[in-house]
Amino acid sequence: MDKKALYQLSYGVFMLASKAGDKVNGCITNTCMQVANSPTRVAISVLNTNYTCDLIKESGIFALSLLDDTCTFETIKHFGFQSGRNVDKMEGITFPKDLNGIPYLGWQTCAVISCKVVESMDLGSHTLFIGEVLDAKLLSENAPLTYADYQNRVKPKPQAVKEERKIVGWRCKICKYVYEGSELPADFVCPLCGHDRDDFEPIYE
Amino acid sequence: MDKKALYQLSYGVFMLASKAGDKVNGCITNTCMQVANSPTRVAISVLNTNYTCDLIKESGIFALSLLDDTCTFETIKHFGFQSGRNVDKMEGITFPKDLNGIPYLGWQTCAVISCKVVESMDLGSHTLFIGEVLDAKLLSENAPLTYADYQNRVKPKPQAVKEERKIVGWRCKICKYVYEGSELPADFVCPLCGHDRDDFEPIYE
After folding, report:
1. Which of A19, A23, A130, B65 could form a disulfide with B109 if both were Cys (CB 3.0 to 4.6 A apart)?
2. Cβ contact (<8 Å) for A1 and B136?
3. Of A140, A146, A129, whose CA–CA distance to A104 is shortest?
């Protein structure tokens, strides 16, 4: 199986929030699809280790903020790169709330979908929840952020790894003669086989 | 509930095929997401009235061809706009086959995912199938076709409805005087209230 084939599935990017009693949390997910109409139902899949997953299991309600193409990496980082078990991600931010009292994003978001869980299925790593849609609202005219957009445009590119290993010598690839020293002179010629600098490779510390 | 909010969910476009005994069929769907890893599982939702849905229920196997951005409307039309109950969509075409012997598209397709059903759930209009991924292959370097691409670029635009109704007269919007005739002269003035051509509206046959 070539897992890269699975990367070709298309997804959106969402801030998925839930509350149970006083506990409120939100995380970033990329799985939601409408799976039925009359009544309108969506399916989401959530990592079992996510705190938001615990809250959905406890209360059976969730709100999905559909991030749009103005979404910044800071938003993804705030909700996606830290756990609600350690940090109150909602602290100090005033969120609009849906009909269940669950906070959603009133910015960088094109729509919000509010659900109650009608079925769930433990799939090992994840739990699949089927949500009946209680309310759905358009929030902006912006295009939804796709997961491909996130990967290609929003997510910072890793900086090129600098070559930090120290060169202590050079080896002739032809006859294995070793020159000791970090800098091989430009006009150096192998004293054994006569090949020049182009046929030497670095020896690292 | 504003259903337009649900249209902001992002999807791919797929040719979903199955076989049961001698019966083989494929249809066009837009719902598939990976819902778990180890083992790798995907969820698809299929209209209960689709013949392909019957075949998947009977055999418990399916293959999903992930259409790519070279996909033409003819392909969508062939698999999506006619029913396998009336037409043999596979007739006269040589398809590659997956490990279960199910045909997939070897063209206009960036990947194929082969599954066996491990769970299913009747959601009224649709059945949700959880498929364990048995095999997955990349077929091209082309970008996957998204459902938004399909709507905006691949699907033919409806031709502008021509105004074919015949004008038989003009009515003064001020005093309701009626001028009989298809062409109102440019310098016409209402003989009753004195308003000009701009205050007249057409009367259709």
Report:
1. B65
2. yes
3. A140
Domain that holds residue B143: 9-154
Q: Does B162 map to a domain? A: no
Q: Cβ of B39 under 8 Å from any chain A Cβ?
A: yes
CA distance B10 to A111: 12
Consecutive 10-residue runs of chain B (205 residues): their mean pLDDT? 94 98 97 93 96 98 98 96 94 96 96 98 95 97 96 83 78 91 89 86 90
Please state, as a whole number, how many other Cβ atoms lie within 10 Å of the Cβ of residue B196.
13
Report the pLDDT value the prediction gives residue B157, as an integer from 0 to 100: 83
**Domain assignment present for A159:** no
Q: Residue A55 and residue A48: Cα distance in Å, rounded? A: 11
Taking the C-alpha atoms of residue A199 and residue B75, their distance in angstroms, rounded to an integer, is: 55
pLDDT 10s digits, A88-102 = 999 999 999 999 999
Asked whether the beta carbons of residue A36 and residue B121 sit closer than 8 angstroms, the reply is no
Average pLDDT estimate for A15-38? 96
The partner residue sitting opposite A119, judged by closest CB among B66, B121, B137, is B121
> What does the DSSP assignment read for A93-114?
----B-TTS-B--SSSEEEEEE
CATH number, domain containing residue B173 = 2.20.28.10
A144 near B CB under 8 A:
yes
Please check the confidence at residue A161 and state whether its pLDDT lies above 60: no
How far is A42 from B154, CA to CA, in rounded Å? 26
> Would you call B6 an interface residue with chain A, using a CB distance cutoff of 8 Å?
yes
Locate the chain B residue with the closest alpha carbon to A42: B6
Q: What is the CATH number of the domain that holds B113?
A: 2.30.110.10
Q: Please answer yes or no on whether A113 and B32 come within 8 Å at the CB atom.
A: no
> Do A58 and A147 share a domain, yes or no?
yes
Taking an 8 Å cut-off on Cβ atoms, the answer to whether A34 and B134 are in contact is no
> CB contact, 8 Å: B19 with chain A?
no
Same domain membership, residue B82 and residue B143: yes
CB pairs A-B closer than 8 Å = 156
Question: Quick check: B43 contacting A, CB < 8 Å?
Answer: yes
Instruction: Specify if A142 maps to a domain.
Output: yes
Residues 6+ apart with CB under 8 A from B108: B67, B68, B70, B71, B72, B75
Report the percent of chain A where pLDDT is more than 70: 98
Least trusted range by pLDDT, from A147-151, A162-166, B185-189: A162-166
Residue B85 has a pLDDT of 93
Q: Which of B3, B7, B8, B99 to mutate to test the interface with A (most CBs of A within 10 A)?
A: B8
Contact between B113 and A6 using a beta-carbon 8 Å cutoff: yes
